[in-house]
Amino acid sequence: MGNKIKKIGLITSGGDAPGMNAAIRAVVRACTYYKVECVGIYRGYQGMIEGDFEPLSARHVSNIINRGGTILKTDRSKEFRTKEGRQKAYNQLKNAEIDGLILIGGDGTFNGGLVFNKEFNFPCIGIPGTIDNDIFGTNYTIGYDTALNTIVQVIDKIRDTASSHNRLFFVEVMGRDAGFIALNAGVGAGAEEILIPEENLGLDRLLESLKRSKRSGKSSSIVVVAEGDKIGKNVFELADYVEQNLPQYEVRVSVLGHMQRGGSPSCFDRVLASRLGVKAVELLLDGKTNLMVGMVNNEIEAVELKDAVKGRHEIDKELLRVSDIMSI
Ligand code: F6P
After folding, report:
1. pTM across the whole model
2. Averaged over 37-59, what is the pLDDT?
3. Is 164 among the domain residues?
């Protein structure tokens, strides 16, 4: 290792995700392994501005691999969007003799790191941590698998009551502007229809599909709706529209909300987080910067941070085709 980095700062930023603690644990233990110091920075970029730092040893991260959330807390800092705020953050890092940063978060987090590196030439490596899975350069983001499993278990429960009452349920899931959560959880939960931003099927297509379900003898249905869906009606308006146009349906709505962000991370997310955390430390110690670590075809790779932010993670067309066939 061309090792000029002696002390690594670590933040979690943006929406929290299950597995972030596993990534924190991996970064701290990799630093210990390579005999460099690690400093936890609380509350993301805002804590960086305020100097809210704590040295982390391998023992500080015992028994957290199984915990949801992030022990470093997270925040969305408005002050860091100002040059003055970033200058304060830089001064805090220099005072603490921190000479490299690892940023666990999504595209907003990485944008902040790119600007910070450009203004202060400060080494930054990103780790994709968000349940949305909407980051270019990795097949999976930390937290996505756990969120899918949480949602599928909840929809299974909703299906129990839907079938008992012969009802149609609209279930809204997170994902911001992406449909990865809705598509994969919808297929996994056996939803009759899945509405995602990437493919606006329109209201007529939805009504036709629901009529076909009824004709085929389905007494209850689940429609999974991505929160970023572009059909032009929110999930409650959708329910009203369908009840008005298909009076044979009794309709209910469940908005899953922030429970999708919680829970003990799945084994997949724990292993993904551990692999990415180690790689992020090794890249910094190799003198690299402005990269994001990711897993592509089960290989740990690094992509340019600017590409991770600008690139678009495409929805799986094959899975879209499967979901269409499954809704027959
Ligand atoms: O980016 C993760 C996410 O959970 C999105 O899916 C969701 O739209 C957003 O965060 C909610 O943000 P907040 O936690 O600030 O309400």
Report:
1. 0.96
2. 97
3. yes
